[in-house]
Amino acid sequence: MTTSAPEPATSRLKISEDNKPIVMSAGFIVVILAVGTMYTLYTQGTATLLSPEYLLQQLQVGAFLGIVAAGMMLVILLGHIDLSIPWTIAAGAMMATTVGGPMAIPVGLGVGLLVGLVNGLGVAYLRIPSMIFTLGVNAVMRGLMVAHTGGFAPQTAATDLMQYLAVGKILGIPVALLVWAVVSMGVMLLLQRTAVGKSIYAIGNKEAAAYLAGVPTKWVIVSAFCLCGMLAGLSGTLLAGYSTKAYQGMGDAYLLPAIAAVVIGGTHILGGRGRYLGTLIGVILIVLLNSVLSIMQMPESGRQIIYGTVIIVMLLVYGRGRKVTS
Amino acid sequence: MNDLRVRLSQNAALLTAIVVFILFYVFYNMNHPRGFSVAVLIQNSNEVFTLAMVAMAQTVPVLMGGLDLSVGAIMTLVNTIASHLLNGSPMQIAFGMVVSLAAGAACGFVNGCIVVYGRIQPIIATLATGAIFLGLALFLRPSPGGNVDDDLSWAATNDLYEIAATYGFAQNGEAGWFQPISWIPVPLLLLVLVAVLVWLPFARSVTGRTVYAVGSGEGAAYMSGLSIDRAKIAAFTLGGFFAGIGGLYLTLQTSSGNADIPQAGAYTLNSIAAVVIGGTSLLGGVGTAIGSIFGALILRTISFNFRIFEIDPLMQPLFEGTVLLAAVSLGAFRVLRVKNTLELFR
């Protein structure tokens, strides 16, 4: 946790332990952009990557991942993980399109909230490791959605409002990006300015200590999982708006990148440490890396290898743990 | 005082898994339209073997207090390697098998080195290496296919009689002494061999005990002078080796290689479920790979039962998911026994 005490002027140039991942990832984003631009300059003679339209378009696509990662970060800060993300996204999208009308978006969010509530209750009250409990919930959600849709892409379409939120623009800025910004502001305020946020860090550091200090640990865990589920539901709703309908497995591509974005951004996978700004940068890094690789027409095999190597190299630079000696 | 009672209570989770499996499997055979037959046993053991291997692969890092999210990826990578190598002369095939298994172990070794020397958390390190292994698998097999020796593929997925008949020993499987064992399915025999010849010696070795010790308390293990680094690398390497056996068998079973990313993910997730159902604690230090074999058997037997009861296929994923969630929720009984709330926070 950072303290609000004013830092002495001499430490300005020093990068604190918490900020190191953020600075390094930001630097790596510049490297990605530079390499990509050199490639396009060489092959097409244009600097497509640096045009504001292109960057805004990439950020619009990144918004879906960014919203999921924001929720995932809350759970990872607790020292838990949410593996039910894929089918929470799909369930949010499918139920939103099924209900339709003005209730579509509240239903999408509500489904996510409900899944998060179940996750939270299982983890906080039944004390089942989140890794395995959310995995089970994911399987149940998949079962429910297969039973609901018959295993096919549902015929129902996204409402106009969902489509507007996903692809619409205000003054040239994609609305999805604005939604992501609002979510980001909310999460940042939650983590830095509220008791719940501080409790999340405390539980991630040492749950027993937080409990003894009077933190309502169960309640905080349940709310963090609820928020994570709700944000996944929101992302699913937007994603359905983006592709005008929901489909099977639409959330599968978001679980691992969300975890990777949070971890690359400097959040400790065992909880207790990490800043939201890092997660934001981590998402942008992954989105830009993906887009540069697709500009280079990298085959899927190469993408996977580069993707894995980047995570390892970034963590080798700043994510090394301490040797346990006592 | 009562040694037997202590031993029973220490292995309660494993015994529960065995009993549950026997109940499920007897139930399945009693309701099978044609009753119990060797043909059904062979088919069942074929379907179980790969998952059982991947579950064993997952157990070793879990015992150490880690988690390996790359077991499915290693299985897939070995599958694609083997689909290129398992043909030609017997020597070439033997070479191909050795290379495949070595590749699996090498993947695990890389995981171990990154965890030990890079000091990155196992879950996130294997998430990354899993992506790399899948990338390599896609590179080796951009589209499904392969050329696998038919005889070997046939012999490895049937009973012992077919091995003898294919390779012409024990008078082509007709010898009198061979009859009592000729019905045994090859995958079942392999499963027992791997458990007895690889897992049990490892679990009883100093390195194996160190893996358990690290899972129970890494600091205490370090202070006791155990070589933690070696145990960690060994745990991941053995995990990779088991996953490699699974991948090799998958190749023989399907006669092809396929860099199927969703399948790799499904195997990884099922392996975690099998480990937990088999009585191994995700916190480390408690459990055994034998339990994970039974965990895998239970998971697969549940699907077998769906098949004969003609449950609406659309409802199957829901049933499977509910059973999985219920099985892992059994661990919640611990909460009821706890007298001091602080004991919960481990």
What is this entry, summarized?
The complex is a heterodimer of chains A (326) and B (346). With 326 residues, chain A is mostly helical. In chain A, 69% of the residues lie in helices and 1% in strands.
Account of the 3D structure:
The complex is a heterodimer of chains A (326) and B (346). Chain A is built from 13 helices and 2 strands; from the N terminus they run H-H-H-H-H-H-E-E-H-H-H-H-H-H-H. Chain A has helices at 20-43, 52-77, 85-99, 104-124, 130-149, 160-167, 175-193, 195-205, 207-212, 217-242, 255-264, 276-295, 300-318, and strands at residues 169-170, 173-174. Chain A has a two-stranded antiparallel ribbon. The model of chain A has no long low-confidence stretch (mean pLDDT 85). Chain B has one domain. Chain B contains 17 helices and no strands. In chain B, helix 3 crosses helix 11 (206-216), helix 4 (71-85) crosses helix 13 and helix 5 runs antiparallel to helix 13 (228-254). The longest helix of chain B has 28 residues, at 90-117. The two termini of chain B are 30 Å apart. Classes of the chains: A mainly alpha (326), B mainly alpha (346). The interface between A and B is large, with 60 and 59 residues.
